[in-house]
Amino acid sequence: MDWLTRSFRGVGEVPLQEDSRNHHPAPSSASLDSQEAADWRQTLERRHWEMTFKLQALSLQYEQLDNMQREQAVQLEKLTAELQESIAERRELASQLEESHEAASSLSLENQSLREAIRTLMAAIGTTPSTLCRLQDKADGTADQQCGYCGIRFEGEGRLSADRVSNASTADSSGLAGSVYEGPMTR
C-alpha cells in the first residue's frame, strides 16, 4: 500500500470503537435534558472540527502532491527532450563513424592501388634511372657515376652508394618491387 493510500485511509470511514469518554449514544427525546444535550452537542462539534481539520490537511497534502506531480511532469519532459537529443547526437556520431570507416577503407584501397601502380612502374623502369644518369654524365663529361640531375652517386648497375638503395626486380620486405630502401641516401 503506498503512502498516498495510507494518507487517505480512514477518511469517510467510521471507527468501530471509540473512547468511552467520546462515545455518547444519541439521546432519546424522552430522556433529553439540557446537560446531556450540551455534552452531545460538544461531542458532535469536536468531531466536526476534527474531520474539518483532517479534510484541510488532506486538501493541503493533495495540493502538494499535485504540485509535485506537475514539477515531475516538467522534469520528465525536459529529460525526454535531452534523451531524444542525445539519441539523435549518438545516431549522428555513429553515422560519422561509419562514414570515416568507409573513407578509411576507400583510402586503403586507393593506397593499395597506388602501391600496385608503383610496383608495376618500378618493374618496368628497371635500371633506367642509372642509365639515364650515366648518359647525362657522359654528356656532361664527368668520369664517375654521379647523376648530374639529382646528385646521387651510383656504384653499379642501379645501386646507390653503400648499398642503401637498390633497384632490383624482386619484391622487398614491404612487398614493393624494386627501389629497396635501407636507410638515408647519400648525396
TrEMBL record:
The keyword Coiled coil applies. Residues 14-37, 165-187 are annotated as: Disordered. It comes from the Eukaryota. Keywords: Coiled coil. Residues 62-103 form a coiled coil. This is Uncharacterized protein. It comes from Pyrodinium bahamense. The lineage of its organism: Eukaryota, Sar, Alveolata, Dinophyceae, Gonyaulacales.
